[in-house]
Design brief:
mainly alpha; about 120 residues; 5 helices
């Protein structure tokens, strides 16, 4: 936090740009987490289990699982608060793009995948 405390974007396009940069970093972290074959967080664990069972790429299943969780979050917040709170563009972008970026890293950097899995 100390490293980025001075970085406070106020214009919407700056906020969106930083969100997209953070999604790339997040996708790299998810890629490393899942391909290292160690313990994974619950969200990635569900996607990994579904991917393993259905023989589909992890990133594809991650997008589907993340979108299902976003839909569930929207339903719960609408039932509880009767208004949309806490789910905005960043949440939807994260659900749609993270898995696709993981698929891209896996496809375009096969040597990195092999290195992480060894």
């Amino acid at each position: 936090m100390r490293l980025f405390h001075a970085l406070q974007p106020v214009v919407y396009w700056q906020q969106l740009g930083l969100t997209l940069i953070s999604l790339v970093v997040l996708a790299l972290g998810v890629f490393l987490e899942v391909n290292s074959r160690t313990l994974v967080m619950a969200g990635e664990g569900i996607a990994a289990a579904v991917s393993l069972r259905t023989h589909r790429p992890f990133g594809t299943m991650k997008v589907r699982c993340d979108l299902a969780m976003v839909v569930g979050a929207v339903a719960l917040v609408l039932l509880g608060a009767h208004s949309l709170i806490g789910v905005r563009e960043g949440t939807v972008l994260s659900a749609i793009l993270t898995g696709r970026l993981v698929n891209g890293i896996t496809t375009y950097f096969p040597r990195l995948t092999a290195w992480v899995q060894d």
